[in-house]
Design a protein that fits this description.
Layout (H helix, E strand, L loop, with lengths): L10 E2 L2 E8 L7 E6 L4 E5 H6 L7 H8 L11 H14 L18 H4 L2 H10 L7 E4 L11 E4 L1 H6 L6 E4 L2 E4 H8 L3 H9 L4 H6 L2 H14 L1
Antiparallel strand pairs: 1-2, 2-3, 3-4, 5-6, 7-8
């Protein structure tokens, strides 16, 4: 059997390949992809390489609406982000709707009804093509007061399933504390799962923690 191409990290149109999604029967390999608009989709590899599929579907929607607008931004990355933002919140068929619209996340009227308003905010608040839109409060809406432009590593650290730990007057995710302290995040999570306070979790050196665990095992 010929070796399959590894498409992870490659970009095809608006789609960046994140990981392999397996095959169905003897069909071509499928790939998990993220669109520039923020939506995720699964695409067959031969569709990506042939150029058949270049987005999550937002390109097709844009081409349909293109004739009825005057802002001329349909081919821009910002328009793709705006379109994806609304799809996540209001289109129930979107793969991301469960984590956004179904949780009550909305787009403010100012942005939802007017792309130009969103464009103006983006250009006045640090937008560049290597950044993604991020909600500061993961339970809050898409609106000027709750959004910013960040790189992907910062956005990953702001996901709602990350654990925020506050110690020594600072708040970071477990992942960030792991890098600061040089302690595996699994160790930090184990401390928290044992009921340790945030301060104790962060301020206990690794050797002392190991002694504590060993003593607990002996006593049990």
């Amino acid at each position: 059997m010929p070796k399959r191409d590894n498409l992870v990290g490659q970009k095809f149109g608006r789609l960046t390949v994140l990981s392999a999604a397996g095959t169905i029967g003897t069909s071509s390999m499928r790939w998990n992809c993220q669109c520039d608009c923020g939506n995720k989709t699964v695409v067959y590899g031969h569709y990506l390489k042939s150029g058949h599929t270049r987005s999550c579907g937002c390109l097709a929607n844009e081409s349909i609406a293109k004739r009825s607008t005057t802002h001329g931004q349909y081919e821009s990355r910002l328009y793709s982000i705006w379109h994806g933002m609304k799809a996540r919140c209001y289109r129930k068929t979107s793969t991301e709707y469960r984590r956004y619209g179904n949780r009550g996340i909305e787009v403010c009227d100012e942005w939802r009804k007017d792309f130009q308003s969103f464009y103006n905010w983006a250009m006045s608040n640090g937008y560049s093509d290597n950044l993604s839109i991020d909600r500061i409060d993961n339970d809050g809406n898409y609106c000027p007061e709750n959004c910013r432009w960040v790189d992907m590593s910062m956005q990953s650290n702001n996901k709602s399933n990350n654990r925020i730990v506050t110690a020594n007057g600072e708040s970071h995710t477990v992942s960030e504390w792991s890098k600061i302290l040089g302690i595996n995040d699994s160790t930090l999570c184990a401390r928290l799962d044992r009921g340790w306070s945030d301060e104790k979790t962060i301020n206990t050196p690794l050797k002392i923690y190991r002694r504590h665990v060993n003593e607990s095992r002996v006593n049990n």
